[in-house]
Amino acid sequence: MFDNVWLIPLFPLIGFLINGLLGKKIKNETIIGSIGALAVFSSFIVSVLTFIKLIGLPSAERSVNIKIFTWMTAGTFNADIAFLIDPLSCLMLLVVTGIGTLIHIYSIGYMHGEEGFYRFFAYLNLFVFSMLLLVTGNNLLLMFVGWEGVGLCSYLLIGYYFHKKSAGDAGKKAFVMNRVGDFGFLLGTFTLFWWLGQNHGIWTIQFTELAKNANLFPTGGVVTVITLCFFLGATGKSAQIPLYTWLPDAMEGPTPVSALIHAATMVTAGVYMIGRMSFLFIRSPETMMTVAVVGACTAFFAATIGTAQNDIKRVLAYSTVSQLGYMFIGMGVGAFTAGIFHLMTHAFFKACLFLGSGAVIHSMHGALHHIHSHDDAQDMRNMGGLKKYMPLTYATFLISTIAIAGVPGFSGFFSKDEILWQAFSNPLHGSVNMLIWGLGAAAALLTAFYMFRLVFMTFHGTCRIKAGAEKHLHESPMVIVFPLLVLAFLALVGGYIGIPKLLGDVFGGIPNYLEHYLEPVFANANEYMAAHAHHAEHSHSLEWGLMGLSVVIAFVGIAIAYTLYMASPEIPKKFTSAFPALHRAVFNKWYIDELYDFMIVNPCKSLGRFLWKGFDVLVVDGIVNGVAHVVMAFGGVIRYMQTGQIYNYAWSMTFGVVVIIGYYLFK
Amino acid sequence: MDINVAQLFQTINLNVIMPEVILSVLGMALLLVNVFVPSKSKGYLAWLSLIGIIGAGFVAVTGWGTTVSSFNDSVVQDSFSIFFKMIFLLAAGLAVLISDQYMSREDCNHGELYPIILFTTVGMMLMAAATDLMTIFLGLELMSISLYVLAGFNRDSIKSNEAGMKYFLLGAFSTGFLLYGMALIYGVTGTTRIAKIAGLVTQVGGAGNTMLLIGMFLTLTGFLFKIAAAPFHMWTPDVYEGAPTPMTAFMSAGPKAAGFAAMLRLLLVVFPAMKAEWSDLLWILAVLTMTVGNFTALRQDNIKRMLAYSSIAHAGYCLVGFASGTATGMSGILFYMLSYTFMNIGAFAVIVLIGKKGEPNGTVMDYAGLGHKRPLLALAMTVFMFSLAGMPPTAGFIGKFYLFSGAVQAGYIWLAIIGVLNSAASVYYYLRVIVFMYFKPGEEEFDWFNVSAPVALALVVSAAGSLIPGIIPSLLLQFAQQAVKLI
Amino acid sequence: MDNLNNYLIVSAVLFSIGTIGVLTRKNAIVMFMCIELMLNAVNLTFVAFSRHLGNLDGQIFVFFIMTVAAAEAAVGLAMFIAFFNNRESIDIDDANLMKW
Amino acid sequence: MDISSVFFALVTVVAIVSALMVVTCKNPINSALSLVLTFFCLATYYAMLNAPFMAAVQIIVYAGAIMVLIVFTIMLLNIRVDANKKSSHQVALGSVMGIITLLLAGLFLTRGKVMQPVGGITTDMINKLGHTELIGKVMFTDFLLPFEVTSILLLVAIVGAVILAKRKLS
Amino acid sequence: MSNILSVMTFLPIVGVLLLLFIPKGSNGALRSVALVTTVVTFIASLPILTGYQTNAEYQFVENVPWIAAGPFAMRYNIGIDGISLWLVILTTFIMPIAVLSTWTAVEDKVKEYMICLLILETAMLGAFISLDLFLFYIFWELMLIPMYFMIGIWGGKNRLYATVKFFIYTLVGSLLMLVALIYLYFLGTKTGITDFSLVHFFDLKIDPATQTWLFAAFALAFAVKVPMFPVHTWLPDAHTEAPTAGSVILAAIMLKMGTYGFIRFAMPLFPEATHQFTPLIATLAVIGIIYAALVAMVQEDVKKLVAYSSVAHLGFVMLGLFALNEQGITGALLQNLNHGISTGALFLIVGFIYERRHTRLITDFGGLSKQMPIFAVIFMIVTLSSVALPGTNGFVGEFLILVGGFESSLRWWTIVASSGVIFAAVYMLWMFQRVMFGELDNPKNQALLDLNAREIAIMVPLLVMIFVLGVYPNPFIEKMTPSIKKVIAHTRIEPVTTAKVAVPAVAPATEAAPPADHAAPVQPVTEPAAEKPAAH
């Protein structure tokens, strides 16, 4: 039935192999790019077909395992190379391959003329392959393969400009931080596998099997341990506190990478994973609260940093971290659908934003290059007034910004508002709900502010680019603009598949398609929640009120941005000079990187150095060599017993005789 | 009380001592030949001796498996003595082969050397075959006096003089203790025939008879001196260093084996009842001997001296097997002494070749670069060193395996452990030779020395003897087992 | 038995004196003489035992010991002469080229 | 205390004193002469022990041959006194060791149990048949092999002495 | 061919004999003969792979008397099972690569070098196929000698210290094992064992106190070879000084001797002691993992870094072995192979740049990716395999080890060990970054040539194996499984503990029987958790 599913990851893999092995020989960028894009597009086609097939099934049967071959089996442990097709994975397939295709196309234009063009496409294909494994793997281990695979590709692509030290550092940082998360993921897997097998004789890591047996798990206890471990994995991959610092640094990679990996797909893997494991997460209130609170804090915290950054991509990066925080709020409050919904809409508008910023940077770079200026092409302080040079880019960028700001009617509004509402009204966390909601709302305000600050600084106002360069600014070619248009369109309308019931009722009973669609995936979690959590009834008016508040917040944010960066641009400077320490702290990302260096990295290095020079060489080897020295010294001493004098020798003999005889006489 | 001559001659079976007779007669003949043949080169004497030695070997082997005594039970021909005779003959043969080149170089190429070597061998053979304290004593003295001469043979060399003098004085001193011991044994039992003594030991009170016990130990010290066990070992380094190298080689292999032969016979045949006592003593002496030998050898630069200390250590290994008192350990001694003869004389053969007149270049450092300039010679030396160190697949390993197995079998686990640890320490100084041969460049222009045919033959035989029994030791081990079983 | 013991004690005393001589003297010839003294002590033991046991083996042994002593004397004294030829001394302190 | 005991004591005193003089005399010649005296005492003992042949051999071989050889060597090498100073610790250590040896010897000698007479050789027999003959019979029956070995031993000694003591031919 | 194992094992010796007849100077011929010999050996080992029946029996067994004297009987008893099969193949597979790796690096004394390599191969193969304890010991010791020469003659600056240390360090351990071996044999003779054949000793009931000592002696010998913390210090020195082929063989095969020794000898022979020592060994293994990683992180010499990474990797293997369940042991054995391939490859890589630049200091490099793209790709893949990225071989082994460890009594150890995955990433990637990324600022590096055809040819088989083992390890696992099950069965403590027997033993035998029967149902409680039967 789904016999062809294996084709989905296969195409990108083939693309990777062709480009990776032969790319250097092919040389022709068009061919390389086409191969790359085509590979992903083929996957997209198959994904669409799969999707159509899937929704053709009755909703209860929409979960299909397709085994390819047995990967490894040892004792009770068994893992297959097998795929799981269900609504969630199918949705992710569409997002990944769809956006992936667009970004591949975009990259053909964007990466034009770069050294190692083939390498870029090979990596990108490899990434798509890994991501597809991640979302379709039917067991934890295969998911982990994808999980690490995307981390690897992220590492490779961040370090794409490997001759820059900062790029290499950023790549390594990303990989290591991800590894910390992976550690959690592994431990979670082990505990889950062991606990279920040990206590119920069910040795499995397959999602459907686990879900089927979800009721065997207790509430809290071991489940908390398991889910917290998994959540640690999620924080690494999805850049949540405390493992978020790699994501802003990851902007060292080419912009399409930021769009695809660090905005649309990879970073959402953590959210996806929690969605996958929702039946387990819901059984641990502690973990759910942790997820929600961490998400909320991250959302707010990253947003504060985003307000003070001047690098266009960094702003977007912090925005991504912040938006991922929203998704985690959604997951943490049991609004799994809402979380996934935000994942999807965010993929649309954030990809669009990144690609748009890429177009801007591309253009800026070209212009600056023309006048041989070494100004930073990504610094917003060098931009301004670009809308007249790049109207299409501006339009798409604006649409996406409005979407992320949460202006009603755009996709971001629906998903974000749903999350905030659920955060407020969910039955899980009691009074903590207010905190979560409060942080979420504050983050929404900041989001609207810094995103519009970005738009205003970049596209509006006067052009601050170095004199002479402005005439070289121009709109990007169609290959770049086309994906922007598609994504902007999606950012505009993507929200309508998940209209909240409240609004849907108003507009004549439009159903929440997404919720229906994902229903079987989260059925177990929802049932459990319904059974175990006390549902407080909230009036419609409260919901309306909060929705209105969100809208107000969005507009207030925009208004502040307009005030500060359009109407009276001198205020930020005044503000900066009024609170220099605060600004410096925010500008320097609250010194979190430095803190990590101080607390973890440097001690580790010192410890390593101490263990090497101090312990390994001095103590361990010292003992070994010490024994040798003692033996040698002993030999050096006893050789002097050999005096060369006969009477000494005779004496020694007599002594021997006397001792022997004496011993036996007096024994 | 008249002597019945016919009856007397019935007790004499010359076949039993035929190898000794052959060598003695040959020795005397060679003395004459040496006088009457006016040849400057004495190489022909070496070949003649070798023929005699081989002949004696063939004669000796024929008696394998039988036990025949002669001369009123004062000497016996059994597998045990034959095995040891083979070791002595081998040592003598190899020593004879490597002597000519050395002696010619050192300008002391006296033809008397070969007869004396042969007489020494006769002495050793008598020690192994004797079943009477008096015969043992005379065999021992024949061997010792010849060895004093051999040690001081290079009379123009101060070192050789000194070696001879030290060996002589200390040897004679130890003889005093040996004789006192024998006197006590005689006094308690009234006979010198060991078979008779053996029968009387329990009758006179066994270990409870202090005089007998002390007599045994005093006798033992005499043999311990010969095998260079601590604390009776101190002559060894000086004598080995000073004596002419081929004689050192001979001395390190033959008399040690002879000492063990006599000790084995004495303790196993006469004093099995006192095993608890002597086994304890040998336990301690084994540890002491191995440790002193190995640890001191670690700090030696002079290769002869280093090998002297190593030979002390090897005596210690053998004592490990001895202390165990098991057939495994005892047969290990036999096997080990045989392989030790091969590997140690082999090593000394290399030293003979490398040395210059007066041996100014006797240190390990002088072997630098040998591996590249004379690869085959260095390879042979490597085999000897690894065999001495007890690395598989050499004979040295199998020998040590049996010795330590004996200790383990008897429950002396700690002894075995101390033994192997010592053996590990010893690896350092054997490896040091290899380090210099292969890993260090030779400093000066290398002198091309010739390798004379007899030395080459000795090297080949030694190398084969160090290696082959390591790979297929079965036959030799079985011989050793039989030999031990029969006493 | 008394009789035997007397002889044995005398021989032990002589043996010990010989030992002391070997351990304390430095002249090689004197040392050798002390060794001879030790051997003689042993001889006395042998003869005393022989007499006590009514068995002549011990006396035969003494006979051989004497022979050996003579042989040793010949070789030993020759050795001393050779040493003296090279070192102009018979003092064992001078036999110290090789040590350690 | 019979006369033989007195005589025994007398000889013993002489033997021990002369033995001590061997050890203590500075001049090797004096030592040698003291040793000769000791040998005579021993010969006396042998005679007292009914071993006249041994007494004779003791005089002839030891006092006659060996001591002459030693004295000859001393004269040849013209050695007078110990050239080097005696180190006192050597003397002390040596003496202590010797005395301990003596004490131990006393212990084991008195503790030991000796076989009761086993042989048929009695004083009467010796007196009747003659010591020499008895010795000869035993030596050429039971101890023929050692006797033959001594011949080689002496040969080696001769050859060895010649080799060692010969001056360099050149 | 029934004696295919012998043929394979001694083929290199035939090569040695051939080499002896080739004149010294003709390096080309010498190298070719050595290469052909190793390749032929590899080909000769393939029938073993194809003819191997997946069951727990020893196969291709040859069993002829060898030594018989006194109480001992040693037999030339060889054969393979699932545990040794892949190690044998790994050995024959790595050797041609090792020969090729120093094709140009060793110009001096080529003949001796190749002879050393070939003797080493025989010794290693012999050790893996020996089913006679004594024979094993002979081969085990024999390995030291050629390696000693390889490091000593063709090694780096500090080679003397390194090689003597290597030799004596390993010797001390193995000599104590020899004593234990002898003791074990004499224990066996009391129950009628008449030769050193391994199988006899599995059924030997040794009292736990004795087992403790015997195990300790065996374990010391093997732990030195593994090497486990804290007896690992010879390894960095030996690796740093050894020539490339030496390092490759050392890492890829010789270290495996240690872990092989544990699973083949120490564990099944002394089950009680194994259980008793499990916490200690697991602790040392885990310390090794973390400790070596931390130390590796700050190394300045690439080769030393890789050497320390070996210590960490082998720590995982030890942890897996002592999980004492199928997953753990499977993972450990797989990790053995993986480490052989990955770390072997890493040493080859270090060899490549050392040959070009004659330095191994990380600071001397930087930005090599630009100059040597092919090298960069290969290095990257191998690095990732070493950090156990899924899809590469390293992951499968490490994961199974951790799963096994987690299921066993070593849960907490496993949790700590899991953090090793983080450290591995840190030190390997940091090193990779410093060597390969960044500006190509050192002028000496700007003239570097990329890998040549020979070097690529060396690496390709290893790269293929990295992915094959990573993606489709099941065929490898399947061949091992029956033997692993057998080992676990041997390692399992008998249900009736000796203490329980001791008490009723005083009573008449008829009364003693019921308690023994009653004891059986109690057994699962004392049994490690992992041994519960699987539900499906």
From TrEMBL, chain C:
- Gene Ontology CC annotation, any one: plasma membrane
As its record notes, the protein acts as a catalyst of: a quinone + NADH + 5 H(+)(in) = a quinol + NAD(+) + 4 H(+)(out)
What is one GO biological process annotated to this record?
ATP synthesis coupled electron transport
Q: Which domain of life is it from?
A: Bacteria
The transmembrane segments are 6-23, 30-49, 61-84
Q: Listed GO molecular functions? A: NADH dehydrogenase (quinone) (non-electrogenic) activity; quinone binding
The record's listing under Pfam families reads: Oxidored_q2
Q: How does it sit in the membrane?
A: Multi-pass membrane protein
Q: Top EC class per UniProt?
A: translocase
Keywords (A to Z) from UniProt: Cell inner membrane, Cell membrane, Membrane, NAD, Quinone, Translocase, Transmembrane, Transmembrane helix, Transport, Ubiquinone
Coiled coil region boundaries: none
Keyword Metal-binding part of the UniProt annotation: no
InterPro entries given in the database record: NADH_UbQ_OxRdtase_chain4L/K (IPR001133), NUOK/Mnh_C1-like (IPR039428)
**Which family does the entry's similarity section mention?**
Belongs to the complex I subunit 4L family.
Q: Which PANTHER family match?
A: NADH DEHYDROGENASE SUBUNIT 4L-RELATED (PTHR11434:SF21), NADH-UBIQUINONE OXIDOREDUCTASE SUBUNIT ND4L (PTHR11434)
Q: How does it assemble?
A: NDH-1 is composed of 14 different subunits. Subunits NuoA, H, J, K, L, M, N constitute the membrane sector of the complex.
Q: What does this protein do?
A: NDH-1 shuttles electrons from NADH, via FMN and iron-sulfur (Fe-S) centers, to quinones in the respiratory chain. The immediate electron acceptor for the enzyme in this species is believed to be ubiquinone. Couples the redox reaction to proton translocation (for every two electrons transferred, four hydrogen ions are translocated across the cytoplasmic membrane), and thus conserves the redox energy in a proton gradient.
Name of the featured protein: NADH-quinone oxidoreductase subunit K
Question: From what organism does this protein derive?
Answer: Trichlorobacter thiogenes
Gene that this sequence comes from: nuoK
